[in-house]
Amino acid sequence: MKIRELMSAPVHTCAPHETLAQAAQRMWEHDCGALPVVDHDGRIHAMLTDRDVCMAAWSRGLPPHALRVGDAMSKALIACRGDDDVATAAALLAQHQVHRLPVLDAQGALIGVFSVNDLVRHGDHDTSLGRQAVRTLAAVGHPRDERVVKDGALTPLVIQAAAKPAATPPAATQRT
Asked: Cys bridge to 162: 80, 113, 122, 166, which one at CB 3.0-4.6 A?
């Protein structure tokens, strides 16, 4: 099964110059826990999660309206392609301990978001997807190791398409 068959679309996004309050409101209005961060040309550069909003406000001691998306967004991105198979994308979710992957088309344009929730919802009807969902949830929910946060900052991830996993996993990941 291909990611484009399970992903959520349309995608709601935010921009680095917007406030965290604006992004949080958009998450609330669209019942989502993360927004892809796009530039003025619509190209995705990062993800912002509801946890990122909370931790940025708490760690800086400022309200969300006083902080920008660029202050809290991930520093890099893990993504997959719409034509990737579900097992490959689920492996990326597990390997990087993230709950969501932006889905890109062949030209790199954002076309959707694939999440652990998408996997679980479809796993209810397909036993192989259900088993994959359980394995992925177990890996994503595993406690982070001490390499994730260094000197109070998350170590950046490298953009990586699901069809071409890195030969060596990055030293750190960001949980979302």
From this structure: 80
CA dist., res. 48 & res. 73, Å (int): 5
Q: What is the pLDDT of residue 51?
A: 93
Q: What is the extent of the structural domain holding 63?
A: 3-154
**Based on the number of CB atoms within 10 Å of its own CB, is 21 exposed (0-12), middle (13-18) or buried (19 or more)?**
middle
C-alpha distance from residue 32 to each of 27, 50, 72 (Å): 5, 9, 17
Report which DSSP code applies to 4: G
Distance of CA 95 to the CA centre of its chain: 13
CATH number at residue 140: 3.10.580.10
Dist. CA 75–CA 83, nearest whole Å:
25
Q: Is residue 57 part of a domain?
A: yes
Residue 74 counted as domain residue: yes
Yes or no: say if 36 and 47 are a contact pair by the CB < 8 Å rule: yes
What is the rounded distance in angstroms from the CA atom of residue 58 to the CA atom of residue 81?
34
For 48-73, how does the pLDDT look when each residue is reduced to its tens digit (9 = 90+)?
999 999 999 999 999 999 999 999 99
- In the numeric block, which tokens belong to residue 58? 């708490």
DSSP-derived 3-state class of residue 53: helix
Domain total in the chain: 1
Q: What is the pLDDT of residues 146-160, one digit of tens each?
A: 444 444 444 444 444
Model confidence, pTM: 0.75
